[in-house]
Fold each of these.
Amino acid sequence: MNDRAVSTEDGRAVSAKGDRADPAPSYDIQAWRRRIPILGSLIPMNNCSQAPQLDVTREAAEAYLDSWNGAGMDWDAWMAETHKAKIEFARLINASPDDIAVFSSVSAATAGLASSLDLRGVRRKVVTTEAEFPSVAHVWQAHAKYGLEVDWVPVRDEIVHLEDYDGVIDEQTLLVSACQAYYQNGYLQDVGAIARKAHDKGALLYVDAYQSLGVTKVDVQAMDIDFLASGNLKFLLGVPGIAFLYVRPGLVERLEPAVTGWFGRADPFAFDVRGLDWAPTAARFDAGTPPVINAYISRAGMAVINEIGADAIVAWTQRLTRRLIEGGRARGFQLHGIDDPTRKTPTTAFVCPEGESHHVEALLLKRGILAAARGPVIRLAPHFYTTLDDVDLALDALGGVFEEDLSA
Ligand SMILES: Cc1ncc(COP(=O)(O)O)c(C=O)c1O
């Protein structure tokens, strides 16, 4: 046994302070916690990296395995499940399932989108930010050989300033590629405002919502977003190996991705080897056989988020974030990014002694806390099922790591 700071009763974290006096979430948090087995032994604060397994996500994986084992092969059911995953993703962002394509990763979704852009005109520039996950920015840079030019919006003071897009987006800009949340510290960009800036100059907007979906309210129509991608293993409660791309209807007819495959055809089962037609919907961005088992699991995870609802999750996780920021400050930790819980996701980053963040992650695990190191920081990322006690215990553990373990 390690010297973890948590004990549990019926899946409930217990600490000296208790959280009974604090406002509770609008949903039955204890009922949800009973459906997350790992809470019996660890406090997951790594939701910005990999969310824990729920009973329903495990059952979904088993449903696929049972189908494979029982029926041997059931492509109709497997394809139907993949479509249901698109439906659930569409619900998350207020889109239609016809606007959604399925990929194996956000990197692949970005490459699919990049391969659909026409770089033969005067608009060949993609404006992106230094806060992008490297994967996304790397795809844009790799397209330089096809004539694509990349221009950058900087990270200043550990965030991206909206006004820094001015002057970088211009009449040569084809696309603005912006993350909704900065993977390093959860800083939320105002994607609606970025959409206005892009559209004012005749450019399109692509949003990487991987670090925000599940803990932020996203409405692609209200925010006027042209393209949006996310994977599933972070706040969407899923697994690696599946990602989704939203393509605004009305744009899709003009786009012919060179990254393609038989599922991108109008009728994948026509088997017309010489014909290259295009599905009329975002399905034209589908390529090869979809990741079926991942679709089962991701659908179940996204259904939980849709059932609880973004408003309720945002209300509770902002409360947790405030506790993290105030508790970190009280303990003398150095926050990375900003301290306004309404302008960030729950991902809250504290600066570690130089070169020590991964060591800090390992030491926290010994104390029963799952956290996620990234560059110079350790990230504590609570989710809808996290209690205020969990937050306090994680902060106490981090204090112990900083004060006792690292100086031992
Ligand atoms: C914001 C963001 N975008 C993209 C990625 C990478 O996604 P993938 O591995 O699916 O390409 C990550 C991974 O952590 C991320 O945090």
Amino acid sequence: MIGFDLSDDHKLLERTVAEWAARDVAPRIRELDRAHTFDRSLLPQLAELGLLGVSIPEKYGGAGMDYLSLGIACESLEYVDTSLRVILSVHAGLNCLTLLSWGTEAQKQRYLVPQAQGKRIGTYALTEPAAGSDVRGIQSIAVASAGGFRISGEKMWISLADVADHFLIFAWTDLEKKRQRDPSGLSAFIVERSFPGFSSGTLTHKWGILAGNTGFLKLDNVEVPRENLLGEEGEGFKIAMFALDQGRFTVAAGATGLIRACRDASARYALERKAFGVEIAQHQLVKEMIARMESDYQASRLLWLRAGWLKNTGQRNTRETGLAKWFATVASERAAGDAVEIHGANGYSDEYPVGRFYRNCKGAVIYEGTREIHALMQADYVLGYRVDRPIRCELPPHHE
Ligand SMILES: Cc1cc2nc3c(=O)[nH]c(=O)nc-3n(C[C@H](O)[C@H](O)[C@H](O)COP(=O)(O)OP(=O)(O)OC[C@H]3O[C@@H](n4cnc5c(N)ncnc54)[C@H](O)[C@@H]3O)c2cc1C
């Protein structure tokens, strides 16, 4: 990226993903959403497009594209449906990029390569029934055993819980530090679905992202070999936060796509629908909502592009990525609410897509740091209470 221009490769990717999603997913998405069905046949198609390893180097089975490309893919996918973008967030963002930065060569060969090729799916499991924002409150424990660790615990609200083959799991390895809530007692593990004692299930009562899979995991004394410890023992908290820097980037770009979808659907409808003798687009208060969608879209896009550029150039971007995620998700909620408003009663039915946008946008305001957690983070940066310290493994820069 030079100046504000995307490269020809970026533009080609944007066009390719948008055309695929419009042709192969958009006509079916309402039915998938109505039926609460995750369509597994989308996975080989995403793999075929190179998206499941989009920013992973070719030597590890990926497409070798830069981090902006991951954002472009996310924005283009969420323009059609949030559930598509979530696949990239947890698999390509939270999981693959974390393995790329923190994995040993053996772990990369065993897990990252098949994931980047799309032959296996990975996800990220931090949240538990009693702890989301408060990571120090998780209860899962990993006790040392002859071959490695035995993990017990429960994870909740995990995207692709019933779909993924590999899971990034976080658990306490130091029980004294758990008692003291000292995060240096947490460790990260790569857990396979096939490990005895592991089970999962789907949450059937959620009301958004209905074409996506979200569920729970149960770990009942799951024996995990020592070579599946990711990073060093005690680095789990840093790894969890590092992963969120990548996941939040994908969520920011995706929410930007959702705002654009709200804007375009609203403009279309406002030009067709008539009230008081004119198309509703003529009414100034309707124009104001559309104008706000446009400014929110443009601002959100600039914020995630900046975060992606920082990633490409190897610069720390926790603050900028967090700001992009916070701004874009909150703006997407505003845009979706206004899109429903512009559609009137029709917005309240699923005959039009904006009702689905309205249900889907809220998840992203909550996951990967709630609106309040991000507000606190941004204020703390400004006030000097929060400073990013160097970490042992950064994302490898991607220079063209
Ligand atoms: C659709 C969906 C998919 C998800 N996918 C995943 C996944 O793949 N992997 C995963 O690990 N998790 C996932 N999550 C979980 C998500 O990350 C958590 O829900 C989120 O971190 C918030 O945690 P919580 O739900 O426990 O809310 P809580 O932490 O209990 O927060 C409840 C409320 O209290 C507020 N609050 C909490 N602490 C503070 C504070 N210090 N100051 C001010 N306000 C505060 C919050 O902002 C919020 O408004 C998913 C969630 C959803 C909805």
